[in-house]
Amino acid sequence: MNNPMDLIRLLRPKHWVKSLFVFAGLVFGHAWGDSALVWRVIAAAVGFALVSSAVYVLNDILDRAADRRHPVKRERPLAKGSVGLPVAVLLGLLAAVGGGWAGYYASPLVALLLLTYAVMNIAYSLGLKRVVILDVFIIAAGFMLRLLAGTSGVDIPPSQWLLLCGLMLTLFLGFVKRRAELGTDNDVDKIPQRKVLRYYSPALLDGLINITATCIILSYSLYTLSPETIALHQTPWLMLTVPFVIFGVFRYLFLLHYHQQGEDAASEAMRDPQLAITVLLWMGTTLWLLT
Description:
By secondary structure, the protein is mainly alpha-helical. The chain is globular. The chain has helices spanning 4-11, 24-28, 35-67, 77-80, 85-106, 108-126, 134-149, 160-186, 202-225, 227-233, 242-259, 265-271, 273-290. The protein has two domains: 1-157, UbiA prenyltransferase (Tetracycline Repressor, domain 2, Orthogonal Bundle), CATH 1.10.357.140; 159-291. Helices cover 71% and strands 0% of the residues. The chain contains 13 helices and no strands.
């Protein structure tokens, strides 16, 4: 009992990749030359990684009974009993305290954003996750708080385009997640494992996904063509990265509809070679154009 690997699994470190959103302001704000600022951004990213782990531990504590009935989630450490409840509580508290300390090192504002993130996710775990549409907006808000922590939180003026693109992307990923869950749950005795799925339908989610996918492509394309963007980055060629974004969105939709994937964006990006290569090409081309 309390196998070290299960303790690590309980923290879900694979989701720490979401903290990359914190670095968006550093890259697109051309602020990477300030070493002190870089360390503050790293601290903010670490803060969100640890606090998000604390939230996952809380979710697993609250959902352990339901998880035991799920064909996949029953393998989680608390659901299968490989980690005891007192140890899980202690681990969650340590992650929360460590994350708060890292956030305060970045700035008091980052610490406040982390507190907002924690309170919002506790409310989500306690009931808001069952409120249709709002549940996805809360997921998106978590990513937007990361963006704000890496911009306003460390005194980098946030780009309105950056915030708009981030919002559209995170709403898209949230609705795709629900669509994938709905498809999976329909294959498991036709009984939704997540209660909010009873209020979603394939037609509704497909419509919301199409709207947000279109908004991602349009907002990012307009961002690359904006005179302010060209002046800031001193290049008109950021538009060359638009095809990568379009292909990435289309590939993600393909994985959703033909392979019923999409529940976990980080895992899909690592598992699918085409999607992984597209992300790497977008990142490489963007960094090349910005430097």
